[in-house]
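User: Sequence recovery, please. Input:
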């Protein structure tokens, strides 16, 4: 299906918005009136600019307060409409959005509303323009799509149809099944937006918290299925009012928007991109650092051993059990301090994973390879982290470990260790984009968003994971600046015995993050522990949580650069990440900062 986006959904000048929409692959745009009024370009120039970019102008919007008005007020509105229709003819737009009236002058009279909309449509028809009537969720007298359709049907003009907006329908908890009773040819336009479920004034909810489909809590795909069953053949168009999007760079936002529509079309069956290839594990986490000593000392205390070195790059491979960490000290990596720069994802089909990424607008990154280097494909996540698609052991595809020359055998022992999850801090304007990216490109399932109180603000996080839990990534955005050591990235290591692992780490010279005694006093009040168990946790700084499925014990190392490690023990099928303890950890990290 054709895709379109309202210019109000993007930041910048009208020219910048049009360019971003075209580059992201949109077929058309909705021109928001304010964008046109603020543009130095004449309507004819905007029309030409869109044509040069390969964009159609699918809608001009909005036209407000046009129906159910006193005669004198309606005459003024009709005069305004004539001027707008003349402008639209110059612009080359043939459909106008008319919103249900919010004017205090509007009267509760459906017959009058239908008669006046008929007159507006007759005038529009003289200019070759169609009128798409939309029920605002906060409309004074008409606020639901079925009410709007009854008025349109009563008006009975061929140039008058309805505009359906997913936000206005779903925010009111209206049943979208009734859409199927509307003839498809009378649905002149379909506007799509998602939103988180919030208990607030619907106007403010709409104006500030809309997001792209798949980023909120609405069943947008279900609504679209109802629309398609009518025979609707128009574009899927995004109309998103969002404070973050209006401040972020237009180009990446437009790509995120287009990605959301490609995923939506896959869900409703109107497009078939390559199927998602869900990763089956974390092959490695790569740290880049200007100073290897603190990093390698920390890894050594955690029980990692350097087992290999890259044949042509200053990259060392450290292993402990199934957990593998690369330490990269290359000159190009010395500018940003120690950080988690790349993740290797074990994939049953690396080539298929790359094709899926390309189809979802995550192009494979160009890479400089040395002779004999494994041809690994990688894509960039919204925060810049490189994600490598690595063949499963014994599977088809190049083996990334063939790039390394072994120098020390990996230690063997009864204790298991693997990467339980990775936590990646997102730029403030990429949080929703990151969740959609990991869901659409990697096929990871999103979990509900969690807000955590930080001593200096609020931290928001959302986990995405494979169904079997072998790949877990926690995405977060915090109140502090992105380079703050508290809101850093971290690698969580799963162990069968976190007490033994913490003791071994401390015996090897490692320091554990101190946790306030008040936390353990509260823990004693909430749970019963075996004799001496709570004292052990207090001594080692181990935090504790439980859910309906099991228990979780975890502790933390100090931060090196922008990275720290977490030791975790999951028992009985625990599914979370210790979120109830996050505010304690954040406060402890603030206290521990030099």
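Assistant: Recovered sequence (594 residues):
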């Amino acid at each position: 299906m054709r895709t379109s986006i309202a210019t109000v959904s993007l930041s910048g000048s009208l020219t910048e918005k049009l360019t971003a929409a075209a580059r992201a692959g949109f077929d058309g745009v909705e021109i928001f009136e304010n964008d046109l009024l603020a543009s130095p370009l004449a309507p004819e120039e905007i029309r030409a600019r869109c044509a040069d970019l390969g964009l159609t102008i699918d809608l001009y919007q909005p036209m407000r307060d046009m129906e159910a008005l006193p005669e004198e007020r309606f005459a003024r509105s009709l005069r305004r409409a004539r001027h707008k229709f003349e402008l639209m003819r110059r612009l080359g737009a043939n459909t106008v959005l008319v919103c249900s009236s919010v004017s205090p002058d509007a009267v509760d009279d459906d017959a009058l509303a239908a008669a006046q909309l008929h007159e507006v449509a007759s005038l529009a028809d003289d200019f070759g323009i169609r009128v798409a009537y939309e029920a605002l969720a906060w409309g004074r007298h008409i606020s639901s799509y079925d009410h709007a359709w009854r008025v349109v049907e009563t008006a009975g003009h061929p140039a008058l149809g309805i505009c359906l907006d997913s936000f206005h329908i779903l925010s009111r908890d209206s049943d979208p099944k009734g859409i199927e009773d509307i003839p498809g040819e009378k649905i002149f336009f379909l506007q799509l937006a998602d939103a988180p479920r919030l208990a607030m004034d619907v106007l403010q909810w709409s104006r500030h918290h809309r997001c792209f489909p798949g980023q909120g809590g609405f069943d947008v795909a279900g609504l679209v299925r109802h629309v398609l069953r009518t025979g609707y053949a128009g574009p899927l168009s995004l109309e998103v009012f969002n404070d973050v999007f209006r401040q972020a760079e237009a180009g990446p936002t437009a790509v995120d928007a287009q990605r959301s529509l490609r995923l939506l079309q896959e869900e409703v069956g109107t497009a078939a991109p390559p199927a998602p290839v869900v990763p089956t594990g974390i092959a490695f986490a790569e740290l880049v650092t200007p100073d290897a000593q603190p990093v390698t000392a920390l890894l050594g205390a955690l029980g990692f051993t350097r087992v290999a070195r890259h044949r042509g790059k200053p990259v060392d491979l450290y292993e402990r059990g199934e957990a593998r960490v690369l330490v990269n000290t290359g000159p190009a990596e010395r500018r940003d301090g120690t950080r988690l720069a790349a993740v290797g994802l074990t994939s049953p089909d690396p080539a298929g994973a790359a094709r899926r990424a390309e189809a979802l607008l995550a192009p494979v990154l160009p890479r400089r390879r040395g002779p004999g280097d494994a041809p690994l494909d990688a894509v960039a996540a919204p925060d810049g982290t490189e994600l490598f698609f690595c063949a499963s052991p014994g599977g088809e595809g190049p083996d990334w470990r063939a790039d390394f020359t072994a120098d020390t055998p990996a230690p063997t022992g009864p204790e298991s260790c693997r990467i339980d999850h990775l936590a990646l801090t997102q730029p403030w304007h990429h949080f929703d984009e990151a969740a959609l990216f990991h869901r659409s490109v990697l096929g990871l399932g999103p979990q509900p968003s969690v807000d955590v109180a930080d001593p200096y603000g609020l931290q928001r996080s959302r986990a995405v994971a494979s169904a079997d839990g072998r790949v877990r990534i926690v995405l977060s955005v915090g109140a502090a600046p992105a380079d703050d050591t508290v809101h850093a990235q971290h690698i969580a290591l799963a162990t069968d015995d976190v007490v033994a692992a913490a003791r071994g780490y401390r015996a090897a010279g490692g320091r554990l993050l101190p946790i306030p005694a008040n936390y353990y006093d509260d823990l004693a009040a909430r749970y019963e522990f075996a004799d001496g168990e709570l004292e052990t946790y207090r001594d080692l700084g181990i935090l504790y949580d439980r859910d309906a499925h099991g228990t979780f014990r975890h502790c933390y190392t100090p931060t090196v650069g922008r990275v720290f490690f977490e030791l975790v023990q999951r028992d009985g099928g625990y599914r979370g990440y210790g979120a109830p303890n996050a505010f304690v950890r954040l406060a402890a990290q603030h206290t521990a900062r030099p």
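DSSP finds 17 helices and 25 strands in the chain.
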